[in-house]
Amino acid sequence: MMMMTKQTPPLHAGNDPSPLQQKNYRTGLVYDERMTLHKCSFDLNHVEHPDRVSKMYDYLQEEGLVSRCVRIIAGPATEEVVLLVHSPEYIAQVQAWQKEAEVDPNQNPCKLEEGSPTYLSPHVYNCAMLAVGCAIKLVEAVLQGEVDNGLAIIRPPGHHAEMDEAVGFCFFNNTSIAARYAQTELNVKRILILDWDIHHGNGTQHAFYSDPSVLYLSLHRYDQGKYFPYMDESNFSAVGEGKGEGFNVNVAWNKFNPDLVLVSCGFDAAKKDPLGRCNVTPGCYAYMTHHLKSLAQGKLVLILEGGYNVQEMSECMAACSRVLLGDAPPTVASGIPTRISETSIANTIQAHRKYWKCLQDHRPSSLPDD
Ligand SMILES: [Zn+2]
């Protein structure tokens, strides 16, 4: 995640000549209270807590944003849909975990951990299926023109979930499934997934690593592999393989001309987040949302991933919602990137220079690491 310091006078994002901000948009909102049933029975303060979505929804309601959105009603996904990304054995495993958790919720289904463990509950399968169902229904509503764009307030999150493994509070990879669903059922060819969660979406990277039709861009903390999910392949050098070489970007840009943009919308890079410890403001998320609206004729869907400070993440989602609805983006301060940020970006540019013409004339302002 890029960190900005040395604040210079504010630059009004509204000066951007994009015609998009002049219009009111129909923004779909999907939320289902039943997703709050999955909770940790042995740690009531666990960071992946149902309040993350219920309080976010309440906040959007208080801010008058829910009534401005078009409510999308969804049910649980079918197994057939989840099979687009996950193996049948793994789906059966999550179903079995739900049953087993009625007797013993203290099993640990996940090998990789960061402080708080990934937990099971007697609702884990139902909630995970519902989260997928909400994501695909919203994407369908956008692609069928029922709404222009949308936001999915869902949990458990998805981007760490592998084809056959639960990782980092994630069971089914909501965003990856939504992308595959859009391609197989709704005739979409090219999809951009921008993942601005503080953590690298290892599951999403793996789902599309050799596929040039899905450009996966992740902005995340890496810390030389010492930050969750602790994988070397979260680094800039992971560029995709086979036909997908050059379509896995671990940091940023366009020229891909997608037909649909999905955001793996984690807010754990927001200030005061107990896991991310970065300082991204609601205005910054809104600003990124504003720029994404210029792609794919505005077909943009934000799908909630992480974020563990309930108040902060609610404000961030509210700021993004306003931009989706057509309000002008807020004023954001521009800054000078730190040396570390410049190096991270230069490394990514270097790794992708041979795949992207637009980068071939780019002169990095900092030398890449060895
Ligand atoms: Zn995260």
Automatic annotation (TrEMBL):
Its EC number is 3.5.1.98. Keywords: Chromatin regulator, Hydrolase, Nucleus, Repressor, Transcription, Transcription regulation. One of its GO terms (molecular function) is histone deacetylase activity, hydrolytic mechanism. InterPro entries: HDACs, His_deacetylse_dom, His_deacetylse_dom_sf, Ureohydrolase_dom_sf. GO terms for cellular component: histone deacetylase complex. Coiled coil: none annotated. It comes from the Eukaryota. Residues 46-254 form the Histone deacetylase domain. One of its GO terms (biological process) is epigenetic regulation of gene expression. The keyword DNA repair does not apply. Residues 1-20 are annotated as: Disordered. Gene3D superfamilies: Histone deacetylase domain. It is found in: Nucleus. Belongs to the histone deacetylase family. HD type 2 subfamily. This is histone deacetylase. The gene is HDAC6.
